[in-house]
Specification:
The chain is α/β, with parallel strands linked by helices. It has one domain: Metal-dependent hydrolases (TIM Barrel, Alpha-Beta Barrel). Helix content is 52%, strand content 14%. It contains 17 helices and eight strands. It has an eight-stranded parallel β-sheet with strand order 1-2-3-4-5-6-7-8. Helix 5 runs parallel beside helix 7, helix 8 runs parallel beside helix 9 and helix 16 runs antiparallel to helix 17. The two termini are 13 Å apart. The protein binds adenine and zinc ion. Zinc ion binds next to strand 1. Catalyzes the hydrolytic deamination of adenine to hypoxanthine. Plays an important role in the purine salvage pathway and in nitrogen catabolism.
């Protein structure tokens, strides 16, 4: 089964580029930028990466991103993730980036987006990987800050597909960002949002009714509301589920209790993703393997999850057709 999972071409729809910052690269970049970080060894890092909740993780994640200064830093970060895509057979990825994490520290929006764009072109040339960018607003900051970010993004609009909403969920409901999402959609960005990761099912309702999202990031807590589950199925909204993130951030107590299979059984278009793989120690294949083993998922269920990601990606119809054909070709070899 592990070999089967590894051999399938995959799409990743929920990945924070700042969350793919491996400690070794962080040490290198911190050293060349002469920035002190609180760890000296990988062992110290591993000890620090024990989280009790989302906020616990976010504090460490924002501190780590603080060593990224120059365009080359962001480029190296992105190329390291694309290399992992290649190793995990990810042929299409939709990468979230948090501009405010950097602009709040005085780094120009242009530095970040130019590096990502260069890396995207190089990854396409080197490994044939296709990728899109999702500009995520930080929900712990005021809506005006998101508006400022939207404004900064406009000269680079052609490089950005979608807008997202991430960071501290509790107390920062989607409705706080109603106007900036409406303005973003007017500019042509496709809306997505984290909802129901830690926050209640009401936040998922707001994401779909107020922000009018095309996909829900996480969404696990929809299972607490049958009406909401029916609505998600009816509207054919996919969930970008991140099993090992949920485990590491204690949104799931043990992996055998992860809700992924329940979501599939209710007819929800769930997908599997890694979220912040450097912090949770697992890229996409490891996420698939963990849930397959813990929930005893069949090959057919794995195929459904993989196909859901391609079908609910923001790729063109032509790309989707080609991706699904590539998946079917691999499946045929196993039949
Ligand atoms: N899992 C997550 N939830 C919310 N914001 C995030 N930013 C990076 N990872 C996140
Ligand atoms: Zn996330």
């Amino acid at each position: 089964m592990q070999e089967f999972i590894a051999s399938l071409p995959k799409a990743e729809l929920h990945l924070h580029i700042e969350g793919s910052f491996e400690p070794e690269l962080m040490f290198d970049i911190a050293q060349r930028n002469q920035i002190e970080i609180p760890y000296k060894t990988i062992d110290e890092v591993k000890k620090a990466y024990q989280f009790s909740c989302l906020q616990d993780f976010l504090d460490i994640y924002y501190a780590g991103a603080g060593v990224l200064i120059h365009e080359k830093d962001f480029y190296d970060l992105a190329m390291a993730y694309y290399q992992k895509c290649y190793e995990n057979n990810v042929i299409h990825t939709e990468i979230m980036f948090d501009p405010q994490t950097h602009t709040e520290r005085g780094i120009a929006f242009e530095t970040v987006i130019s590096a990502l764009q260069k890396a995207r072109l190089d990854a396409k040339e080197k490994w044939g990987i296709n990728s899109l960018f999702i500009m995520s607003y930080l929900r712990h900051l005021p809506e005006e800050s998101a508006f400022e970010t939207l404004k900064q993004s406009l000269p680079y609009k052609k490089w950005i597909t979608s807008v997202g909403l991430d960071s501290s969920e509790m107390g920062n409901p989607p409705s706080k960002f109603k106007d900036v999402f409406a303005a973003s959609v007017k500019e042509g960005y496709v809306p997505v949002a984290h909802a129901g990761e830690e926050g209640p099912s009401e936040y998922i309702w707001e994401a779909i009714d107020v922000l009018k999202v095309a996909r829900i990031d996480h969404g696990n807590r929809c299972l607490e509301d049958d009406k909401l589950v029916n609505e998600i199925v009816k509207r054919d909204l996919a969930l970008t589920v991140c099993p090992l993130s949920n485990l590491e951030l204690r949104n799931t107590d043990v992996i055998t209790n992860h809700p992924l299979k329940k979501l599939l059984d209710k007819g929800i278009k769930a997908t599997v993703n890694s979220d912040d793989p450097a912090y949770f120690g697992s890229y996409i294949n490891a996420n698939f393997i963990a849930v397959q083993e813990a929930l005893d998922l069949s090959k057919e269920e794995i195929i459904t999850l993989v196909k859901n990601s391609f079908k609910h990606s923001f790729a063109t119809d032509e790309q989707k057709k080609s991706y699904l054909e590539q998946v079917d070709k691999v499946i045929a070899n196993y039949r």
